[in-house]
């Protein structure tokens, strides 16, 4: 059954958009949901706590951990010489002081770049971290939601990610604390074959507002999560995803109002730049 969705104006923000407004003033949050709902909601720090520190840096990941996120979300790509690194864009231009495609630069070239000054002077000198550094720093401490970014540009990236996880005995994660997702659904099928015990997710944009039950059933043959742009999320979509035996973590919440809307829609988790909007501690109900 196809659904017709009225998308709330300004809510459907693509995951590829800027991670958050630097220094944005945060309003005092109020809650209209129960403490029980707050406690069970999965809190995913988007590219780390990217509302507070430069995205996809160790500073952002540590901040997300300190703010008690359930997961840190990371974007994984591959350098010219085959090193797995965490960066969102397929070029280094926006988030570093360098230029060029990630896949055209060696790891040493990327490692020399400043990945923090663009966000604020206090983050000058932050480096682009490797996938292995992130795993070693955070495994067993916080969940890691791994997005394979544009894997079609990096043949063999699924195998390299699998090797890094298997080397650390993370191919059988407890409590789904390792999840792999991508907009490239063929890549997720490949990854699932390599890591059958690791939960996988499909990312979709606003063009999937009319996803059918048949399409959800097909995704469910290899995916455990259907993670859409938050602008297309409705009660009906949430119910249909659950009926297909998948969970739903919409992206990317950047305000308290957006987070509360997603709470009300009954999603399983929220991918957010501001982890403080998705409470994991008791607050007073309004």
TrEMBL record:
SUPFAM superfamilies: PLC-like phosphodiesterases. It comes from the Bacteria. Keywords: Signal. This is Glycerophosphodiester phosphodiesterase. Residues 1-19 form the signal peptide. Coiled coil: none annotated. It comes from Bhargavaea changchunensis. Residues 41-282 form the GP-PDE domain.
